[in-house]
């Protein structure tokens, strides 16, 4: 009925009467899964590594040698369609696999995503070893089969100490090279993010041989922060030089998870070790502090960054500014906007919207206008020339009047503006009452048109927002109704 294509290697056991025929279940078949040469290639490759491992490391259990080996199947194809009623069972020329069965209790020891049953040290250590041995080219995993124990089923050599595996997965450089279970390099990363070295790994000295950075990076990227930290710790303990990639991965991972103190600690360690820091190192920490609205800490790190001669970018400043705004520290936000402008950086739209929203909420149109100019979102900016000097930080921003602070901020570089601020001050009360009207116009006649256009701009924006919300409300109602129907 079936024709045999090639011969299988039934290592470890004599071919008996009993054989296992493997073919794809119809549901999986319909989703496109097939048995191919790649499955046999994976088995052969795994067995090559197993053989090399047994010879090189001669694992033992007690004093007895402990071998591991893989079943290698043979591909055969059906000579005709075999149906179960009208449903496919096997189609003509469809490939199947013939194998000697695994005798004894069948267990799964680890998966192709790094899960481990925790039974026996050898499977996990072997998987890891294949990766180290191949320099990252292959990772043999998804180890399942029978763990031969004293008193149990023996091999043809009479040994009770062995692992007989079948259907391994190979994670190679390019996913799919060894069939659908081959999740490629990404799969390797995931596997390592779950793998914890056991005593066997350690006795093989595998820890020192791995690329720490790739493991740290894998853990960090998959959100396993503690594990990323653990690996960086081990790397340092082992005396392996950690570089900016090692530290930045961990710092960023900690920061992303909101573990500010941990992120800070690693940045401090990085600095202490004399490892070159960059904007990324600091921005992660600054952003984490800012997310917690811990302005002081965010500021401290930004100042530290600048004092270390690291070029702070838009992200560095924007994080701090956003935190200031969210905490209602508008003066401080203004101060950092100044610093940002002085550094020649332009705020992006998000930052602009954040500060503009705060000004709008506070009904502070003047401030908005100043900030708009500061952020160079207008052609006719008062800050174009000359460049600003470093402004002094408002010491206690909330207790100072806005005008005083503005005077601090705008001193030196903007004498004209300061003068205007001074002149305006007596009119503060009336200006508030008149909603940015006459008092301002009286002292600054040239600004009338700008004020009016700003008012219109905000009015239009508000109308647009209301309309948008109405549309959204109607749409979501409609969506709910159509979902119900
Ligand atoms: Zn390990």
Automatic annotation (TrEMBL):
PPR repeats lie at residues 208-242, 243-277, 278-312, 313-347. Keywords: Kinase, Membrane, Repeat, Serine/threonine-protein kinase, Transferase, Transmembrane, Transmembrane helix. PROSITE patterns: ALPHA_KINASE, PPR. Residues 416-446 are annotated as: Disordered. It holds the Pfam family PPR. Residues 416-436 have a biased composition (Basic and acidic residues). This is Alpha-type protein kinase domain-containing protein. The chain crosses the membrane at residues 456-475. The keyword Acetylation does not apply. Coiled coil: none annotated. One of its GO terms (molecular function) is protein serine/threonine kinase activity. Residues 1-209 form the Alpha-type protein kinase domain. The keyword Kinase applies. SUPFAM superfamilies: Protein kinase-like (PK-like) (SSF56112).
